[in-house]
Design a protein that fits this description.
Elements (H helix, E strand, L loop, with lengths): L3 E4 L13 H19 L4 E4 L11 H15 L4 E3 L25 E3 L6 E6 L2 E6 L7 H11 L7 E7 L13 H7 L5 E5 L5 E2 L1 H4 L4 E3 L16 E5 L7 E4 L5 E10 L1 H14 L4 E10 L19 E8 L2 H5 L8 H10 L5 H14 L2
Helix pairs in contact: 1-2, 8-9
């Protein structure tokens, strides 16, 4: 029985909201995914792109990646896709092809090396793909050309691209992917961080987005993190979960006073103990909007990120607010209510107002 592991979008080196602590989360999730993958003893491990978050990564993240690639390659073949985060600018430069020089078992898919054919358990298995291409016209042309080289006993298409309906803007239409699908026994993609089948193609060839090992935005809060394991029946893959950092994105509406809004936010913070928490409160406020607390740092103990945003419930309500004359007293009131206690900043603002306010 053959088996293949697909690990996508680890984004090593990403400082989410500029927090250094998040670097460890991405590294920990990536290492857990690799460790779990090796315990499953697959015939090959495929990394589906965006292993690194930056085309010129920090040394620690790069060292982590290279050490793991080499350690995996010592026991089995490794195939690497090149994601958009690993390509710099319109020049299209990337360090990723160098990975192939680290070990004879590491193979990087690119326009120059689009077909990797391996002898696995007596059958030739072809992994076919190219680097992320931003141009839809170019990506679809490359996809069309790629199919002609899919001549192994088993052929697997490995791409890091956005497919129509799964991410906008997209580089591959569903029509183009369906046209290429008959040339392959399995299609696996990276780039979309949610693990899911591509149903519009799967009636022809099993097709999936393999997911990510750690979330990079609060919009992904509900996504499970992990990787995919395929055995002989490609239509029945296994999703292997990874313990990523706890994340919650809470959206609530409120009609009430600023004190009630502050109390509501405190309750939401208490009810969501995740390390990464974002709260969006839409308020139909009965009172002064500036009386809502701005500094929530007292509630950050044990958290990596706590982000709180309060917005007016409607543009019409906001437009109907009373016009207030801007004067020195208004400026002082703003500094007092916003919690900014810097006397130096206040004096600078007052001086600028006196000079240009007229």
């Amino acid at each position: 029985m053959t088996s293949f592991v697909f690990i996508g979008d680890s984004h090593l080196g990403y400082r989410h909201r500029f927090r250094v602590e998040r670097l460890r989360d991405y590294e920990r999730a990536f290492n857990e995914a690799v460790d779990k993958a090796l315990r499953l003893n697959p015939d090959a491990v495929v990394f589906m792109g965006d292993l690194l978050h930056h085309p010129r990564p920090d040394p620690v993240s790069l060292r982590t990646l290279l050490n793991r690639l080499i350690s995996v390659a010592c026991s089995r073949p490794v195939v690497v896709c090149i994601g958009n985060h690993e390509i710099e600018g319109h020049i299209g430069t990337t360090y990723a092809p160098i990975y192939g020089d680290l070990h004879e078992n590491i193979h990087v898919l690119s326009s120059e090396n689009p077909h990797v054919v391996l002898d696995i358990r007596g059958r030739s298995v072809g992994f076919h793909g190219f680097e992320f291409i931003r141009s839809r016209e170019m990506a679809e042309q490359k996809l069309k050309e790629l199919a002609a080289g899919a001549k192994a006993d088993v052929n697997i298409l490995c791409l890091h691209q956005a497919v129509e309906r799964y991410l906008s803007p997209h580089e591959l239409s569903l029509a183009a992917l369906r046209h290429a699908a008959p040339s392959y026994d399995l299609i696996v993609l990276g780039h979309v961080h949610k693990h899911q089948p591509i149903r519009e193609v799967s009636d022809v060839t099993p097709a999936f987005y393999c997911g990510s090992t750690e979330r990079i935005s609060f919009n992904e809060a509900a996504n499970p993190n992990g990787f995919m394991l395929f055995r002989d029946d490609f239509r029945k893959p296994e999703f292997v979960p990874v313990n990523s950092a706890g994340m919650a994105y809470v959206r609530e509406e409120l009609t009430g006073t600023p004190d009630e809004a502050n109390q509501k936010i405190e309750e939401l913070i208490a009810a969501n103990p995740q390390k990464l928490l974002k709260i969006e409160l839409t308020a139909d406020l009965l009172g002064d909007f500036m009386d809502i607390r701005r500094d929530w740092s007292a509630f950050e103990q044990g958290r990596t990120i706590l982000e709180v945003n309060v917005t007016p419930k409607s543009a019409a309500k906001e437009a109907s607010l009373e016009r207030v004359e801007l004067n020195e007293d208004t400026i002082r009131e703003y500094f007092e209510k916003s919690g900014n206690a810097s006397k130096e900043q206040l004096e600078v603002c007052l001086e600028l107002f006196r000079k240009y306010g007229a």
